[in-house]
UniProtKB/TrEMBL annotation:
InterPro entries: RNA_pol_sigma-70-like (IPR039425), RNA_pol_sigma70_r4_t2 (IPR013249), RNA_pol_sigma_r3/r4-like (IPR013324), WH-like_DNA-bd_sf (IPR036388). This is RNA polymerase sigma factor (Sigma-70 family). Pfam families: Sigma70_r4_2. Residues 62-114 form the RNA polymerase sigma factor 70 region 4 type domain. GO terms for molecular function: DNA binding; sigma factor activity. Belongs to the sigma-70 factor family. ECF subfamily. Transmembrane segments: none annotated. GO terms for biological process: DNA-templated transcription initiation. It comes from Kribbella pratensis. Keywords: DNA-binding, Sigma factor, Transcription, Transcription regulation. It comes from the Bacteria.
C-alpha cells in the first residue's frame, strides 16, 4: 500500500484504481516470495490478546497454507483474489490481465485440486 501512496498520481490516472492497487499487491507478494528472507511476518495475535491460546487454529492454517503452496502460481493467485480479496471474476480478469473465461478455468482447476488435497482431508466435514 505504501508503494501506491508514493505513486498516487499513477493510481489516480489508472482506469480501474482497484485493479491497479490489487496488481501492485500481487507484484509485491511475488517479489517477496522470490527472496530467501521474507522480512517481517504479520502476527495473528496482538499483544493485548497474549492470554489467548496461541496454538488455536495453527493446524487449520498449516493445512490451508500447504494446500495453497501445492497450487501453481496462477491458480493460487486466482484463489486468493477471489476468496480473500473478494473480487468478482471481471475484477480479477482486469487485475490479472486475462480474459474472464481464463479466470473461471483457473478457479475451477484450483478448487478441484483443493478438494482432492490430502492436507485438507481432516478439515472436511465427515458426512
Amino acid at each position: 500500500m505504501e508503494r501506491c501512496l508514493v505513486k498516487w498520481n499513477r493510481v489516480r490516472a489508472a482506469d480501474d484504481r482497484d485493479a491497479y492497487v490489487h496488481r501492485v499487491l500481487i507484484n509485491c507478494f511475488h517479489s517477496s516470495r522470490r527472496r530467501r528472507w521474507h522480512g517481517e511476518r504479520p502476527s495473528a495475535v496482538l499483544p493485548e490478546y497474549a492470554d489467548v491460546d496461541p496454538t488455536a487454529g495453527i493446524d487449520e492454517t498449516d493445512a490451508v497454507m500447504r494446500a495453497l503452496d501445492g497450487l501453481p502460481d496462477d491458480q493460487r493467485t486466482a484463489v486468493v483474489l477471489r476468496y480473500y480479496a473478494h473480487l468478482t471474476e471481471l475484477q480479477m480478469a482486469t487485475v490479472l490481465g486475462v480474459a474472464a473465461g481464463t479466470v473461471k478455468s483457473r478457479l475451477s482447476r484450483a478448487v478441484k485440486a483443493l478438494a482432492q488435497d490430502p492436507h485438507l482431508a481432516e478439515l472436511r466435514d465427515p458426512r
